[in-house]
Amino acid sequence: MRWQEGASTERRVLERPFRVECDGEEVPGLVWTPEASLGERPLVLIGHGGASNMRSDYVVRLARRLVRHLGYAAVALEGPNHGERHVPGQDRGWWQPEVVDQVIAEWEAAVAALRDDPGIGTGPLGYWGLSMGARFGIPLIARGPQIAAAVVGLSGPRDSEDPIVKDAAAVSCPVLFLLQWHDELVAREKGLALFDAIGSEDKRLHAQPGPHRGVPPEEFDASEAFLGARLGPSR
């Protein structure tokens, strides 16, 4: 892992850019921690949506509020062919199994590296990701490092053979699933089918009126409360 130039602090939240190596590629990432604070704390992995990036406003806002309100750490990675990794004219291919496997490996590499950071340590892991962030996040939760609680949503199986259904069944941690009732990109029944497939005993569904990109502010409040209740306090 290599720290990059450009670290900044805003209202006691330290933001640091980094690169982590995975399968011969350096993957860009951002990590947020309390300023000048050492010790073990929960780490929330934030997966951005399609055609978005790790510096999108909602990603940064969520990360900062988790740090300020809960004392947590948060990390975001640039998705394949997104943001700094985007290749113009190339199919993003986010639904391909090999891309899912790639993303899981990248998250595993980032988590392993951040465990050595004195401001993060080996506290519990959380996950937050909607749309493409859920598409990658559910397989990650099922097959990757042990996630203690997750917020996902705005996604669904492409068809009955979609591997995400099997991955969802293997998820056992507490899950909050967000659904937009008038989602124009993911049919309502697809979102409900994915929620139904999740194997967790502790799972709940929040449905709000509005389109795919219309997730209201109160669901970010709910996300924070859900993760805070299940990941516990920062030490």
Report on this structure:
With 235 residues, this protein is an alpha/beta fold. Helix content is 33%, strand content 25%. Strands 1, 2, 3, 4, 5, 6, 7, 8, 9 and 10 form a 10-stranded mixed sheet that branches.
Specify the overall morphology: globular
- If you average the pLDDT, what whole number results? 95
Q: State Rg.
A: 17 Å
Judged by helices, strands and strand pairing, the structural class is alpha/beta
The H-and-E topology, N to C, reads as: EEEEEHEHEHEHEHEH
Which homologous superfamily in CATH is the superfamily?
Answer: Alpha/Beta hydrolase fold, catalytic domain
Count the beta strands: 10
The total domain count is: 1
Describe how the helices and strands are arranged:
Layout: E1 2-3, E2 8-10, E3 13-22, E4 25-34, E5 43-47, H1 57-70, E6 73-77, H2 97-114, E7 125-130, H3 132-143, E8 149-153, H4 163-170, E9 175-180, H5 188-197, E10 203-208, H6 217-231
Parallel strand pairs: 5-6, 5-7, 7-8, 8-9, 9-10
Antiparallel strand pairs: 1-3, 2-3, 3-4, 4-6
Helix pairs in contact: 2-3, 3-4
